DNA sequence: CGTGACCTTGAATTAGCTCAATGACGGTGG
DNA sequence: CCACCGTCATTGAGCTAATTCAAGGTCACG
């Protein structure tokens, strides 16, 4: 399935012409939820107006794959709401999730002329779609945008290297603790309160594919942490963490 | 151990003042082995002269660690010869090698204000050292350099994601095949000849730490490939591959 | 209230690890 | 020149963390 097929069609509830109309005069961008996040925050209002002309807003339903690994990388994306999983697959179906990305995330850095990963919406996702060609032109005009993208790429590289350490050398317990702690950092950033509460959009299978484990091992490991009083689980995908620092200690491989 | 201590001293055979003198007038850069590679190839001769003023050439003996994870990232590096291993460690000594990098590679992308990894010379390494501050100034002046760095970062991200798939989902056999095939691509780039011969600068322990395995498993796996006739091993760290395509098939997880 | 997707738990299996012994190689000093 | 030593690589034997296979349980939704 090609990306153009995915993005050009199959969005009956949000016809393209109306979306484009909505972007006129930069209204959509200047009042956008991610105005202060992501690449947009590197631009002033005038520059943003340029960017807006190249953007098309689309909505992706849960479970829909909208980037196929190895297909032509003709478009970049900027997520404005929802959560997306990025993954690679082996021919026999084994899957590795490279990351879960949400609001403000720019999609299309790990790209030559073909996408290096597939992308699928976990919950309902809204995003801005850019033609790669047009965006590159805009980038040429605004060096600040270029620098911003380099910074984004640097951050992603740091995250990728942390994940390599996790996948190559951490135990199941350390992996799950790392994941939970990482999600808390995303949610609360700087310092995480005691009894921090998280609600995950992703399934156990997704977590397993992110951590290089099986569903069963993830489930057993979380149960283990629960028995030790390190986490409490609630309805849906809710997990609370009484003492985040203990989780962090485990995540770091210090015990 | 701080980076400045490592880079400022301990290079008795190559005193700094002479090195700096050698860079005058861009001579050193314009005739440099990596002139056509890495970030330097993004610049014309005049621009390169600017860069040269900020560069200090240093030589690192085998086994010397010259970047310490989490120390202040005050300097960037550009490798002109030799091979460097980049790695992260856990408190108990478990180690994950993020990659082996050689000629033309720019070191310092996966960085916030502290290094995200440690770096150690495998064989004798020569590199250009830049003050981070000065290099950032130069980058501001030359947008082509900025774009080049983003491309470098994008390529590293793609490689990191391939490695995540390897570490999270591939078998030992697939990992070793991937490594050998990857080394062949580095050596021969496009199409790899039959009976391609490789000489590795790194030990089995390094390969193990790169692939998320133990030394013993790497050794046994290579022995297994030898018994199957997929590789032949020679003296030193030499390995030949009669049919690279078969190795590639295994690396991709297709059998 | 039936169905399907997801989660949990148990039992048995196994890929890769740990521990241990031996061998190959290269440098060093007598 | 060769005996010694340390580092690195290989191989074997047994172990274990995580997987596979299997069985229920929970929950949302039509």
TrEMBL record, chains A, B:
GO molecular function: DNA binding; DNA-binding transcription factor activity
Domain Cyclic nucleotide-binding: 39-156
Signal peptide location: none
One cellular component (GO) term of this entry: cytosol
HTH crp-type domain residues: 170-245
Keyword line: DNA-binding, Transcription, Transcription regulation
Gene3D superfamilies, per database record: Jelly Rolls (2.60.120.10), Winged helix-like DNA-binding domain superfamily/Winged helix DNA-binding domain (1.10.10.10)
SMART domains membership: cNMP (SM00100), HTH_CRP (SM00419)
InterPro entries documented for this protein: cNMP-bd_dom, cNMP-bd_dom_sf, Env_Response_Regulators, HTH_CRP, RmlC-like_jellyroll, Tscrpt_reg_HTH_Crp-type_CS, WH-like_DNA-bd_sf, WH_DNA-bd_sf
Keyword Transcription regulation on entry: yes
PROSITE patterns hit by this protein: CNMP_BINDING_3, HTH_CRP_1, HTH_CRP_2
Pfam families documented for this protein: cNMP_binding, HTH_Crp_2
Record-linked PANTHER family: CRP FAMILY TRANSCRIPTIONAL REGULATORY PROTEIN, FUMARATE AND NITRATE REDUCTION REGULATORY PROTEIN
Full protein name: Transcriptional regulator
Organism: Acetobacter aceti
């Amino acid at each position: 399935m090609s990306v153009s097929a995915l993005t050009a069609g199959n969005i009956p509830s949000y016809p393209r012409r109306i979306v484009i109309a909505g972007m006129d005069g930069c209204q959509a961008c200047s009042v956008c939820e991610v105005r202060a996040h992501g690449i947009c925050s590197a631009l002033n209002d005038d520059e943003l107006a340029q960017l807006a002309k190249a953007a098309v807003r689309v909505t992706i339903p849960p479970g829909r794959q909208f980037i196929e690994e190895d297909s032509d990388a003709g478009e970049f994306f900027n997520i404005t709401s929802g959560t997306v999983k990025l993954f690679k697959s082996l021919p026999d179906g084994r899957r590795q999730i490279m990351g879960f990305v949400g609001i403000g995330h720019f999609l299309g850095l790990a790209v030559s002329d073909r996408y290096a990963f597939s992308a699928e919406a976990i919950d309902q996702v809204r995003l801005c779609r850019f033609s790669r060609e047009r965006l590159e032109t805009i980038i040429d005009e605004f060096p600040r945008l270029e620098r911003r993208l380099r910074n984004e790429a640097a951050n992603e590289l740091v995250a990728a290297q942390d994940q390599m350490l996790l996948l190559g050398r951490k135990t199941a317990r350390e992996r799950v603790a790392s994941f939970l702690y990482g999600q808390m950092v995303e949610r609360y950033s700087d310092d995480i309160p005691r009894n921090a509460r998280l609600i995950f959009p992703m399934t156990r299978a997704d977590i397993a594919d992110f951590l290089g484990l099986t569903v069963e091992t993830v489930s057993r490991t979380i149960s283990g942490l629960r028995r030790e009083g390190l986490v409490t689980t609630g309805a849906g995908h809710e997990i609370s963490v009484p003492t985040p620092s203990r989780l962090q200690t485990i995540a770091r491989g210090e015990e």
